[in-house]
Design a protein that fits this description.
- Helix content is 67%, strand content 9%.
- The protein is mostly helical and 162 residues long.
- The chain has two domains: 114 residues, Arc Repressor Mutant, subunit A; 45 residues, no CATH class.
- A three-stranded antiparallel β-sheet has the order 1-3-2.
- The N and C termini lie far apart (43 Å).
């Protein structure tokens, strides 16, 4: 028999992901960006000019998903797009994109803390626990690998900015 605490973990994690994903979508909708676009812009902001292949790898998405997500925000002037030597496509954050990303980050952060009824200490503990789950070698997840640097930075920033 599986202990009750263990048997409730999977449904709770799944429901938390659904709830937080929906919350993030709702918070970002006034800015007309999706969570995937937000993640892409965040990666580009932290890495600087980024090749399309590097962005695909870092985000753990297919080329078609990336293009479907990134082109609309390029068209809005949030990202610059350039084809460089060898046909390599690169993206960079524009000033307009940087302003929108800052606003999106504030909205997403305030929503996660406020609406989830978490204080700063709770959020710090949650980030550390999530980092342990995602970083555990006992739970293989190839799709999570590209996100480890983002997760590590997020946890580091959350714990340093106290």
């Amino acid at each position: 028999m599986v202990p009750l605490a263990t048997s409730t973990v999977v449904p709770l994690l799944y429901l938390a992901e659904l709830k937080l994903g929906n919350l993030l979508r709702r918070q970002l909708s006034p800015l007309r960006i999706t969570p995937l676009q937000y993640i892409g812009m965040s990666i580009i902001a932290s890495r600087g000019t980024t090749a399309q292949e590097g962005l695909i790898e870092q985000m753990g998405v297919s080329a078609s998903d990336l293009i479907g997500s990134i082109i609309p925000i390029c068209d809005r002037g949030l990202l610059g797009r350039e084809v460089v030597a060898g046909g390599v496509v690169t993206f960079c954050l524009t000033d307009l994109g940087r302003g929108l990303l800052d606003a999106a980050t504030r909205l997403a952060s305030n929503a996660a803390i406020g609406k989830a009824n978490l204080d700063e200490q709770d959020m710090e503990q949650l980030l550390k626990l999530l980092a342990r789950v995602i970083g555990s070698p006992e739970i293989p997840c190839p799709a999570c690998e590209p996100h480890k640097p983002i997760l590590a930075r997020t946890v580091r920033e959350a714990t340093e900015n106290k």
